[in-house]
Amino acid sequence: MAVLEEISQNLQRGKAKIVKELVQQAIDEGIPAKEILEKGLLSGMDIIGEKFKNNEVFVPEVLVAARAMNMGASLLKPLLADGDNTSAGRVCIGTVRGDLHDIGKNLVKMMMEGKGLEVIDLGTDVSPETYVETAVSQNCQIICCSALLTTTMSVMSDVVKEAEKAGIRDHVKIMVGGAPVTEAFCEQIGADKYTADAASAADAAVEICRSLAG
Ligand code: B1M
Fold it and tell me: GO: which molecular function terms (predicted)?
């Protein structure tokens, strides 16, 4: 599947327009959306991540690659959907305060929408107060927190505390994820559910909404 390799290569060079065209080409060739995402877009992002770690590329290169990733992923969004239009529940999602990484959060959002959940996207750099106020005012069943930095994951603990303070812990669940987050960390801070990837997060959210409903 040469086109997937081309997607990965062009994503690494930050060629957003070409990535978008290649993703469309892959779709037209009948390659499943999940495969385009994993073997094209995410594989390119992994290589950029490794190079970033080793100081072979720097913030500007990573930013253009991220833009290419988001543009390519936007074409896959409708194809990753389940096709069921009834709302499976409502969640709010954001990357925690101090953290600007949003690619993983956007993927989680996309997969959740694909499973029929209504997703309120709070963006990045989200304070514990904003998560909780949104969950209350918008009747969300789940608060979803993403963090990519070891220095920001502790904000998730503040989200749990803020939710306790607001007295919503019995009917609003808290899901956490992102590269440095683990199951053990989730338990330690008293959050409800950790998942390692976007697809598992979407499945878990649907399950939680179902159990809260009934
Ligand atoms: Co940043 N960055 N970055 N960065 N960056 C990392 C995270 C880093 C690991 C790179 C490295 O040094 N090896 C490192 C963190 C080190 C650490 O804390 N241990 C790092 C650093 C240090 C920084 C800066 C401090 C760099 C600097 O300025 N000196 C700075 C911080 C800025 C800030 O946030 N305040 C910074 C900046 C940036 C960019 C702006 C340039 C850019 C972000 C652009 C954007 O997001 N729009 C960026 C990027 C792109 C990365 C890497 C290269 C890629 C991250 C990514 O998008 N991965 C990253 C290196 C790496 O990860 N290899 C790195 C792809 C994405 C799909 O994966 O987000 O993990 P991920 O999401 C996964 C799962 O984690 C899960 O689902 C997704 C897959 O299915 N998931 C959830 C995510 N959220 C979930 C929530 C859930 C469940 C699952 O439930 C609610």
Answer: cobalamin binding; metal ion binding; methionine synthase activity
pTM confidence score: 0.89
Three-class SS of residue 186?
A: helix
Q: Are residues 53 and 127 in the same domain?
A: no
- Ligand 1 close to Cβ of residue 92 (< 6 A): no
DSSP string, 49-99: HHHHHTTSS-HHHHHHHHHHHHHHHHHHHHHHS-S--S--EEEEEEEBTT-
Domain range enclosing 140: 90-213
163 alpha carbon – ligand 1 mean position (Å): 26
Give the whole-angstrom CA distance, residue 13 versus residue 16.
Answer: 9
For 142, list phi and psi in degrees, rounded to 5.
-140, 140
How many structural domains compose the chain? 2
**Which tens digits make up the pLDDT trace of 95-139?**
999 999 999 999 899 888 878 899 999 999 999 999 999 999 999
Domain edge (last residue) among 51, 82, 113: 82
